[in-house]
Amino acid sequence: MLLLRFYPRNLGLSKRYFSHKSAILYSQNKINDTDLQTEQIHSSYDIIINGGGIVGFSFLAAIKTLPYLSTRKVLLIEQQPEPKFPPKIAQTKRIFGNRVSAITEASKQFFDSIGVWDELKRDAKQVDAMHVWTDHYRNAVHFENLDSTSSNGMWPTCYIVENSKMIRALYEKINEIMIDQIQVRYGTTVCDIEQITSIPSFRDDQTSEIELKLKDNENETLRTKLLIGCDGFKSLVRTKSDLPYYNFDINQMGIVGTLEITSPYPNNSVAFQRFQRKSTIDRALSEIGNKIQSQPSNLFQHQTPPIVNATIAGSRAAFPLGFGTTAPRLVGTIQARNFMNRDIARSQNFLNTVIMGDAAHRVHPLAGQGLNLGLGDAAELAYQIETCLSNGFNPFGFTADSSESLSDSLRQFERNRIAKLIPMMGAIQSVQTMMSWTPASALSILDSLPWVKTQMVKFANSR
Domain 3-83+96-461 carries which CATH code? Predict the structure, then answer.
């Protein structure tokens, strides 16, 4: 098997989602446009999203489908060039990617609401159950999503979807709905972020905007009332804001690859995960059609129930793993360079910076919840801003009332997401600890409690 490349993989959690009064750079003095060079170009937007990916593109697609948000001026900045996809042709043998995600029922509903699930479900593999064990395969926990309201008494545990398929579906949906005031700029990098104010009174600094400087175009700056960071765990938006972030390395290595297997279960609809007590390697197998996505390594036939028939050449990739843990904060402000003004800026208590997805939280990849948490962020933020607009408020205006309505929406977004994130982080760590220290024979006790197992699966599938 060919080892392709290493991926840095630190898992972390931002202490906050937003900050008090985006204080990226705060100045007491008025900034007059006449003081700027005449060739300087300023472009203003209601919302700027820094970073694309699945979470960023999903949020933009949600904006385009909402009646009030779709009327606002929005820009998404993506550092990577515009993706190029091969034409859709019938394949005699399907080619699988080695980067996949487990999509929960809540994420499926979100994809359905923005109009991309019909495109994804053709390639999505439904997972009906999950088999988890430690030392002995028969002393295990078999998870199923039992529900008396379904036709067969069971709902899917999750869906396995290739990341490349999701990116393509979202890209096509974004380009399908053409709205002039909503734009995407590919191949663009933000190099600096500042906070500016356009009025002379320090007391009224709540009308300040955030200014973004571009790496390859020094003569153009972008301004916005709301900056959203979807720029990954090395987020520039988070770094420039007052949102603390903590992470630590758990000294584990993950290897992901595509395997062809013979499964003892019909339709290859059961996922497998093993926790090893005397090793830093855990294993997970998630099915994609008649293939299995494996992560990480050291899989032997006598250790796993499926029989490995083949490994797709060049399909392996390795990356170190790390954890971050703290109470999350998702909204806030940009750090002030003038430290004398920082406390004054915060005292106004207005918010205009948001982080979501990997910029705000990272969890262990074997938990299968990282992308789902990011999609939950996108769905919740779109809902809160749309609700604010539909109630007659203008969160993107230049008045104190506008700033207050925006801050209220962001605080509600943060409260709702923390209520999901903290229990989820605790559950992930609890499962890791339980599987590492609980005797294998004790797992059969949990396996004999179907109601408890069903509630665990439902919680994992909730938004």
Answer: 3.50.50.60
